[in-house]
Write a structure and sequence with these properties.
eight-stranded mixed β-sheet; Jelly Rolls; Aminopeptidase; 673 residues
Length: 673
């Protein structure tokens, strides 16, 4: 793509920038910012009057990115921002004409990478040097710190918060050529040696701002970094099996060790707050972080993160609002991952990208499901108050209730939809190898057209697409929010051409007769009020000689020994509550008869025992019991005694001496000619 950087010449061209910024910050990132004009879809504030703008356009004239700069000699920042960036002190040090403020830096999604950003910042930097600037200031979110540090920006004062989340104030010594060359900043080649200040501006900043420092990023050799990370990991053997940092080769360590950035959090500083949509992920190196939640009354710390643990979320796990807050319990150091970690790893080595994604999903989804369950027990059915204000783009205003929709499972009716999303992700990824070994044995093959019925957030569809490089995957899902998540996930992984999602229900699958080779319904039938009608639809859309597969469970096969008192009665109450909503907790034993009843041939059932010791004890509890608690909550039957029993059950299953098992039923048959 040929990109040209220009300066807007008139008000019409400037208005184009304001519209572009609105689309980025409001439509994509759902930010509410000063200067947003929702009626005219513009982002335009008072700083634009004295700013100089740069805009990157493609050959068609379409805007691909923009940035603006204000010289503090003729611009006064808003009072609050002046205090946060300490502009009065900077102006005393250098003079207003020699300090510039960078803001409204945005790049179109399709143009994100080095080219557009580098051209914009290079043009801006050249202008600032021409106008005699010595230092530039700005601020950034955690996920973009590495990018700015590599340009030569450095932290200089305390972090602060805005409406969307935590922000790090950063300063750029425009003429510190030695430092730019040392860190290999792309701006170094634009700084002539004749104007090199030999670190004079940096020395002034050190004297005025104790927090000013050269950030540690990308300088450590990968093996040194990995040794440090290994030292931070807990010694527990079971934890070691889920260690994100274990098992990578030296070459893979080199790829993953690039662009990692250290940051310090002050005691009491909130890294993330409940209700925010900020993304980002890191690993704690020292200190401790608390997962903080408040259902009503004072906040409570429900989990303490220790050195070596991952925190935050990666973009592939969704952009919904956070349901808990994360706070530094003491002065803590962390290592931040770049925002494009997955994409960069996959570009360098597709196998590494897939391994990395699996590790992230398995570790993060499992742990955050555990967090969300604890939150649910603390808060009751009103846990997700933030969910009421989610972006309207995730909702279809024209959606009507579909006939015979899944009565016992409605994503939109759950009290904490984000925790349920995390549970669905974990449910799809944990036990993957066991599941696919069974599916392969009964006829799943590459090149097939596969129906993923009740596809949810798309994780099963993604796993199918990755494992079968020539297959076509069709997901059918009635819930709009889950379908949007699935489409976003598949697109981010590059499988949109082979994997699509349709709106539909099990008894009205929007496909022609015989359209697929392999119909698959995973943990869906426990929620259905009309299993035979759905099976008939699966048979209809599956070609003769293909395979219809239903995977589900039967709660009467659950074993926990020694079991806490009251568990048997709890299981009965759950079964009654789900039956009242149209589901069946004992559907596993009935699948053989259902498949026979609709006329499938070669009907068979395989039974796969899943134990807590093999799956992981926290994961086992999350997958087997978390939705059951939500069933009782929705029925209004999750009283304090019941919540206490769920806590006791989790504690019992976590013991290494407890035997816990459930059985997965894999029922399948062949449509006749």
């Amino acid at each position: 793509m040929s990109i040209q950087v220009i300066r807007p010449k008139n008000e019409r061209e400037r208005e184009g920038i304001y519209r572009f910024l609105y689309e980025i910050w409001s439509d994509e990132f759902h930010r509410s910012m000063e200067g947003m004009d929702h009626e005219h879809r513009l982002l335009h504030d008072a700083l634009d009057e004295t700013a100089q703008h740069f805009v990157a356009i493609d050959p068609s004239g379409r805007i691909q990115g923009c940035v603006r700069v204000n010289m503090l000699g003729n611009t006064a920042l808003p009072e609050k921002l002046q205090a946060q960036l300490r502009t009065v002190e900077l102006i005393k040090l250098f003079g207003g004409e020699q300090v510039y403020y960078l803001s409204h830096f945005a790049v179109a999604p399709e143009a994100r990478g080095r080219t557009v950003a580098s051209l914009l910042l290079g043009a801006l930097y050249g202008l600032c040097l021409d106008q005699g600037a010595l230092v530039g200031i700005s601020y950034c979110s955690l996920q973009f710190i590495s990018f700015y540090y590599q340009l030569g920006y450095r932290p200089y004062t305390e972090n602060f918060r805005i409406d969307a989340g935590i922000r790090v104030p950063i300063v750029h010594c425009a003429r510190d050529r030695a430092y730019l060359e040392e860190i290999k900043s792309p701006l170094a080649r634009l700084c002539p040696s004749a104007i090199d200040d030999k670190g004079a501006a940096a020395r002034k900043l050190i004297n005025q701002f104790p927090a000013f420092k050269n950030p540690a990023f990308g300088r450590k050799k990968p093996h040194h970094l990995w040794a440090r990370l290994a030292h931070m990991m807990p010694d527990d053997t079971a934890a070691g099996r889920n260690n994100f940092f274990a098992g990578f080769s030296v070459d893979e360590q080199r790829i993953l060790g690039q662009r990692l950035t250290e940051i310090t959090f002050s005691q009491g500083e909130h890294i993330y707050r409940r209700g925010e949509t900020e993304q980002g992920m890191g690993v704690l190196m020292s200190g401790s972080l608390g997962v903080e939640f408040s259902a009503s009354g004072p906040s409570r710390i429900i989990y303490v993160m220790q050195p070596g643990e991952l925190f935050g979320e990666i973009g592939s796990l969704g952009g919904e609002r956070r349901t808990v807050s994360l706070v530094a319990l003491e002065r803590s150091q962390a290592l931040l991952f770049p925002s494009d970690l997955l994409e960069r790893a996959e570009r360098a080595d597709p196998a590494l990208g897939f391994t990395l994604a699996k590790k992230l999903l398995k570790i993060l989804a499992t742990r955050f499901v555990h967090f969300a369950e604890t939150v649910g027990c603390l808060s009751g059915s009103g846990a997700d108050q933030a969910g009421n204000n989610r972006p309207t783009r995730l909702h279809d205003p024209n959606t009507t209730m579909m006939n015979s929709r899944l009565d016992s499972y409605r994503f939109e009716s759950l009290g904490d939809r984000e925790s349920e999303f995390k549970r669905l992700v974990a449910q799809a990824t944990i036990g993957e190898e066991i599941e696919f070994s069974v599916l392969d044995s009964i006829g799943l093959h590459d090149g097939a057209t596969v129906l993923d019925l009740g596809s949810g957030p798309g994780m099963t569809s993604l796993l199918l697409a990755k494992r079968l490089p020539s297959a076509v995957v069709i997901g059918v899902e009635p819930e709009d929010q889950l379908r949007v998540k699935a489409e976003t996930l598949i697109a981010s992984q590059g499988f949109a051409e082979r994997c699509r999602f349709l709106k539909g229900t099990g008894d009205r699958i929007p496909l022609d007769n015989g359209a697929v080779d392999f119909s698959y319904a995973r943990l869906l039938f426990q929620h259905l009020p009309n299993p035979l009608a759905v099976l008939k639809e699966m048979r209809r859309v599956t070609r003769p000689g293909g395979v219809v597969v239903v995977v589900d469970v039967d709660d009467r096969t659950n074993i926990v020994h020694p079991a806490p008192a009251g568990l048997e009665d709890l299981e009965k109450r759950i079964a009654v509550a789900q039956a009242a909503a149209g589901g069946d907790r004992h559907v596993g034993r009935k699948l053989y008869g259902y498949l026979q009843a609709i006329g499938l041939q070669e009907v068979n059932v395989q039974h796969v025992p899943i134990t807590a010791s093999a799956l992981g004890r926290h994961a086992f509890f999350s997958i087997v019991y978390s939705f059951k608690r939500q069933v009782l909550e929705r029925a209004g039957e999750c009283d304090p005694q019941t919540i206490a029993l769920f806590h006791e059950l989790e504690h019992v299953i976590s013991r290494p001496t407890t035997f816990a098992m459930t059985t997965v039923f894999v029922a399948y048959g062949v449509p006749p000619p």
